[in-house]
Amino acid sequence: xxxxxxxxxxxxxxxxxxxxxxxxxxxxxxxxxxxxxxxxxxxxxxxxxxxxxxxxxxxxxxxxxxxxxxxxxxxxxxxxxxxxxxxxxxxxxxxxxxxxxxxxxxxxxxxxxxxxxxxxxxxxxxxxxxxxxxxxxxxxxxxxxxxxxxxxxxxxxxxxxxxxxxxxxxxxxxxxxxxxxxxxxxxxxxxxxxxxxxxxxxxxxxxxxxxxxxxxxxxxxxxxxxxxxxxxxxxxxxxxxxxxxxxxxxxxxxxxxxxxxxxxxxxxxxxxxxxxxxxxxxxxxxxxxxxxxxxxxxxxxxxxxxxxxxxxxxxxxxxxxxxxxxxxxxxxxxxxxxxxxxxxxxxxxxxxxxxxxxxxxxxxxxxxxxxxxxxxxxxxxxxx
Amino acid sequence: xxxxxxxxxxxxxxxxxxxxxxxxxxxxxxxxxxxxxxxxxxxxxxxxxxxxxxxxxxxxxxxxxxxxxxxxxxxxxxxxxxxxxxxxxxxxxxxxxxxxxxxxxxxxxxxxxxxxxxxxxxxxxxxxxxxxxxxxxxxxxxxxxxxxxxxxxxxxxxxxxxxxxxxxxxxxxxxxxxxxxxxxxxxxxxxxxxxxxxxxxxxxxxxxxxxxxxxxxxxxxxxxxxxxxxxxxxxxxxxxxxxxxxxxxxxxxxxxxxxxxxxxxxxxxxxxxx
Lengths: 384, 274
Hints:
Strand content of chain A: 25-35%
Structural class of chain A: alpha+beta
Oligomer: heterodimer
Number of helices of chain B: 12
CATH topology of the largest domain in chain A: Rossmann fold
Structural class of chain B: mainly alpha
Number of strands of chain B: 0
Largest sheet of chain A: 6 strands, mixed
Order of helices and strands of chain A: EEEHEEEHHHEHEHEEHHEEEEEEEEEE
CATH superfamily of chain B: MetI-like
Number of domains of chain A: 2
CATH class of chain B: Mainly Alpha
CATH topology of chain B: MetI-like fold
Shape of chain A: elongated
Largest sheet of chain B: none
Helix content of chain A: 10-25%
Radius of gyration of chain A: 25 Å
């Protein structure tokens, strides 16, 4: 039975709308190798959802399981409320945009785009109209009779997008669709992609290893590491409140402090560093004061001027100075040996200069340091 | 160390070697074609004058025409059968991982190294008229089976690399867009290996039309052209009639091979922009 043709039965008023795409404990093993490890996801209709992670983290395999090109070793996948775990890709109402586009080289652009509707026996008149519409939506009019080999990388990317969108899929699955393009074109096409997504109101499931791309485009991002999801959140949350050390390091700079609460009061924990110096932490985890936890703070939140209480105030030694134009990046060492990156906008009137070995005092608001899970990555001794 | 391709004398020596190689390969053939036009009752020098009478004699010999027709029939059938089977085997070998894959690969290519005499004898034993193991009479059908076996490895060697070179994601994309396995094969794989399929058909045809050993074991009443030529050598009066037939075969084979290559290149160019 064709899933797409089956009537959509109105669900019996669920308490909350079921996710558009639901992954339930999805796991994939290649031999003894666990590539995707008990992934749970709920993607909403019309959402721009990104799976972000380093290569080999299982994001592409997860995407391929949603498309049906890969079969989960265990777990279930539901699409629009229907369990499609055992449905072949040809009968799932989702379409892939492949990393290298995978355009059919022996067909013209128009034939490529018409491939899906043709197989789905869409009548000729409607087919032509839909192809024209898809070509328009990716601004490729006039190139219908070209072959993929005669197009630029950016144009090929758009053909791949049109070829998928023309089927009006419930979701578009994009596997690093801009990965093969140079930086400038990439930025342009990022915006176009976002526009296309908003215009067509299609659910996009996007895979990338580029954190900036993920933050720019997505409504929500799932950060993956070693086959498992580390955190699912909006780009802002992900940056401002990373849940784990991995997320903190993968999105932005990893600023980790080994924190041991010396005193607690009114939901505030403090680690003392000698006279008048402290790292203040809002909403510390309820663990006993004795145990060490990891605390992170974003580099641009650290100031070199006093802030109102309660705030962290720590003296540190400048280890490294990098002039980056609009800002200066300092690497400083805390009394306990932890190293922090500090971003200081070059807008100060005093035009203060820094040199390695200099003593500075760091300040940041208590709410800007927060506890994260996980272990610190091995410390690199950048000093030697 | 100086490069032999760059030095003047080195290049000259290589060119000379290449010339000698060409003469060694093609002089006998050329001489044969010359003799077919020689107005002499023996195939040999001296060259007395040009004539087409041997061609005329061959065309008017009904046995030659029947043998030629038989060869073309078996050749065409071999081409399509071998290519069809090779497509299936090649696809499986290039795309699927299954137990015994290397065994299948080895078995499919084995006829390359088995002497055709051995093959001919074993097929003759299978099909022998008194008490056959497989009840197929010695005939063009039996020859066809033998020729498919001989042609198969060549066809596989032409088709398999082609199929393997197709980006697997093209097939995945087709599947993702709603194509069944068969539709994917027909609409994506087949067009992309089209030139190789043409090559395979031609090679299958030429292999069969050229083959004499197996054919001579298995023919029944109707002989194929090579078998006719071979057996005709025993009769002095027929010899001069065979020379033009052989000449035509040589030229035809040459034209076919060149045509196959042109088709392949045209196909490559068409996709080359990709």
